[in-house]
Amino acid sequence: MALVLEYNISQSRLQKLRFALMKSGLKSREVKKEEYGQSLGYLAGIEGYEEIPNADNLDFSDEMLVLCGLSDRQTGVLLPALRKAGVSISLKAALTETNADWSSSQLHEELIREREAFEQTGKSIH
Fold first, then answer.
1. For residue 20, which of 102, 116, 110, 89 has the smallest C-alpha distance?
2. pLDDT value of residue 57
3. Vertex 84 angle, CA 111 and 81, to 5°
């Protein structure tokens, strides 16, 4: 099932984001801070991933989206819809076999490292 995990989206931007998702035919799920230590696979509802009791929740406040199970076509529709809605979220990732075991906090740290590496080379990741 195609799903977009949402992190720290302000109320003023959440409506625009959800409208773009709806127009793209996608569902979303807001991830709460107390869930940041759970695996992305669990948060996305993938069979075989279980809740981790007493998971470490390393907090972050950046906006972030995780695209779970989107086809190339769905991604190709969503990204322009977000731009058209005026919703720019720099931390975006697709759920993969590799990162499905990661927590939201781990993914956030990796995306921050990638962004910093791109900025050091003078390139933009948007």
1. 89
2. 74
3. 65
